[in-house]
Recover the amino acids of this structure.
């Protein structure tokens, strides 16, 4: 019988990989907590209409990539392809937005039917950060400063570049849209198929094309910055002034538009040249119109999302990933039925006395020699040896596994938890 394999592009995260994920996630949580952000959680499955109305029907995500299906009631449902729309829906539904300020974050899997490759999967994981109720460039700057601090603490700042742009308000984009269409219409025979299709539906998305010939044509295209209204320009100048004052370097990218329709004003990406084609590890911007677009009251908003898989890849590529942690601090070796039974109780007593201790007990039998091999492989600093003879005398042998000069000690079973805490655990 053939073995059942995982779905292509939906990968297992193995025990050898999860410590890096846990390290990264814990650092992210720590930084977000220090900036006063609270966690929110929402479902993986949403009504399809949520993403059509927010992301935009003429986008690759909605047209080609969403996992959409009908449930038994005939409702069209979709595995979330991104988190912002779900966050807005959850906040509006639960009364968290009107006349309130919110700083929120979430984490979890997203789903897009793309061609799997390094750094781009069909099930991928993101941490998203969203803020609501604040209109000025100060909150835009805070989000960028927050992410810049995270890169510094992870040791990857030198590998990342902040790209920045303003796509203005709706009127600015409409004026620019017409100028861009007028320009590109003279190159219809040279545009790639996707760009030609977007020319009549969503021309700003052409700026995001990866086609070399189209990108060459765009080199002489009108620039969105020249079409910004005074308010949009003042907002962007305010953001740049704050980043300059904070010493955060950035690169102005007039062709940066982001791939989702709900963005306006500020857009930004953190990119790297260390991961090949999948160079964006974090991206976001303002989406002041999205709450109203989804049926809520007008609410200013700005946020970003970072890709966990790509950040893990970057940590590994730059060799700044932490070493694999040991599985345990204390390993209990036991031989004989009575000793094995006593070992279970002893392990529980140590865990109770020293709550932070990681105690691993041998299971499945084996000789002293084979169990010591397991103890060494576990990374434990200390072995407790309990055989029938030790049990009969009411004590256990305590042996350091990392200090060859340390002598083995015999300690009464009742005194072991306190002895370990006093003489060994502070050294771990």
């Amino acid at each position: 019988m053939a073995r059942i394999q995982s779905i292509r592009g939906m990968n297992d995260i193995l025990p050898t990989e999860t410590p890096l994920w846990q390290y990264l996630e814990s650092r992210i949580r720590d930084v977000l907590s220090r900036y006063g952000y609270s966690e929110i959680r929402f479902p993986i499955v949403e009504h399809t209409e949520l993403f059509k109305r927010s992301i935009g029907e003429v986008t690759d995500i909605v047209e080609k990539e969403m996992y959409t299906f009908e449930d038994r009631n005939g409702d069209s449902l979709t595995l979330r392809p991104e988190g912002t729309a779900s966050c807005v829906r959850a906040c509006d539904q639960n009364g968290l937005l009107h006349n309130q300020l919110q700083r929120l974050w979430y984490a979890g899997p997203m789903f897009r039917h793309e061609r799997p490759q390094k750094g781009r999967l069909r099930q991928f994981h993101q941490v998203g950060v969203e803020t609501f109720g604040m209109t000025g460039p100060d909150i835009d700057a805070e989000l960028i400063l927050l992410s810049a601090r995270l890169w510094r603490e992870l040791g990857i700042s030198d590998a990342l570049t902040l790209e920045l742009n303003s796509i203005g308000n709706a009127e600015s984009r409409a004026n620019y849209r017409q100028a861009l269409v007028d320009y590109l219409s003279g190159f219809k025979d040279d545009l790639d198929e996707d760009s030609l299709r977007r020319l009549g539906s969503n021309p700003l998305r052409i700026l995001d094309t990866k086609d070399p010939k189209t990108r060459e044509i765009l080199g002489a295209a009108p620039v969105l910055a020249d079409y910004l209204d005074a308010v949009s320009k003042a907002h962007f100048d305010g953001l740049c002034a704050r980043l300059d004052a904070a010493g955060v370097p950035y690169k102005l990218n007039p062709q940066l538009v982001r791939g989702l329709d709900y963005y306006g004003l500020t857009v930004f990406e953190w990119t790297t040249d260390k991961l090949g084609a999948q160079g964006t590890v974090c991206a976001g911007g303002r989406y002041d119109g999205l709450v109203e677009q989804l049926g809520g009251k007008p609410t200013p908003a700005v946020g970003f999302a970072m890709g966990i898989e790509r950040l893990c890849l970057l940590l590994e590529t730059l060799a700044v990933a932490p070493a694999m942690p040991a599985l345990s601090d204390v390993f209990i070796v036991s031989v004989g039925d009575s000793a094995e039974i006593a070992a279970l109780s002893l392990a529980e007593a140590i865990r109770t006395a020293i709550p932070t201790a990681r105690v691993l007990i041998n299971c499945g039998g084996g000789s002293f020699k084979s169990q010591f091999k397991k103890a060494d492989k576990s990374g434990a600093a200390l072995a407790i040896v309990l055989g029938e003879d030790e049990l009969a005398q009411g004590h256990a042998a305590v042996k350091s596994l990392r200090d060859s000069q340390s002598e083995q000690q015999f300690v009464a079973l009742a005194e072991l938890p306190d002895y370990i805490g006093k003489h060994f655990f502070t050294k771990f």
